[in-house]
């Protein structure tokens, strides 16, 4: 796939495009690390509520184990050409502790409510601190579109 025809978007346009993708896409890659067990990466469904990314996974998963030991997390939308990387701190909520609005919005988006399952789940909320977004080589410079929790441009 050639990227020579890629036109560099202004930062404000990349922010708009990133927010649109966060609001409409279904899947993301969640990357965590544990001091003793090392890195772990898994694809999960997610919800963007306008302020934070929410995802849900089994209470005994490696993702939850890692986040409880090290709350820093990197999230990536699954397109290697139209890249969006989100970094932030994760907050974990048991399915009983999850804020009702977040749990309801997650269930509405996916038609599945983890709180109704027989096994326990954990909801994870990540407020972005840094977001990088770029399409191809022309956008590598200036790819940071959020810094210290504030959108740029």
Strand and helix layout:
Elements: H1 11-24, E1 27-34, E2 38-48, E3 53-58, H2 62-69, E4 72-76, E5 82-94, H3 100-110, E6 121-135, E7 144-147, E8 150-151
Antiparallel strand pairs: 1-2, 1-4, 2-3, 3-6, 4-5, 5-6, 6-7, 7-8
Which features would summarize this protein structure in a list?
single chain; Pnp Oxidase, Chain A; 153 residues; six-stranded antiparallel barrel
Question: Brief description of this entry?
Answer:
The protein is built from 3 helices and 8 strands; from the N terminus they run αβββαββαβββ.
The tally of beta strands, per DSSP, is 8
Largest sheet: 6 strands, antiparallel, barrel
Please tell me the CATH architecture by its name: Roll
Q: Give the overall form.
A: globular
Q: Which strand order spans the largest sheet, edge to edge or round the barrel?
A: 1-2-3-6-5-4
Strand-pairing-aware structural class: alpha+beta
Number of H/I helices? 3
Residue-averaged pLDDT, rounded? 95
Gyration radius (Cα, Å) is: 16 Å
Oligomer: single chain
Count of structural domains: 1
Q: What proportion of the residues is helical, as a percent range?
A: 10-25%
Structure description:
GO terms for molecular function: coenzyme F420 binding; oxidoreductase activity, acting on the CH-CH group of donors. Residues 27-134 form the Pyridoxamine 5'-phosphate oxidase N-terminal domain. This is FMN-binding pyridoxamine 5'-phosphate oxidase-like protein. The chain is 22% helix and 42% strand. The protein is α+β, with helices and mostly antiparallel strands. The longest helix has 14 residues, at 11-24. The chain has helices at residues 11-24, 62-69, 100-110; strands at 27-34, 38-48, 53-58, 72-76, 82-94, 121-135, 144-147, 150-151. The two termini are 29 Å apart. A hairpin with a 5-residue loop joins strand 4 and strand 5. The model has no long low-confidence stretch (mean pLDDT 95). Strands 1-2-3-6-5-4 form a six-stranded antiparallel beta barrel. It is built from three helices and eight strands. The protein has a single domain (11-151), classed as Pnp Oxidase, Chain A (Roll).
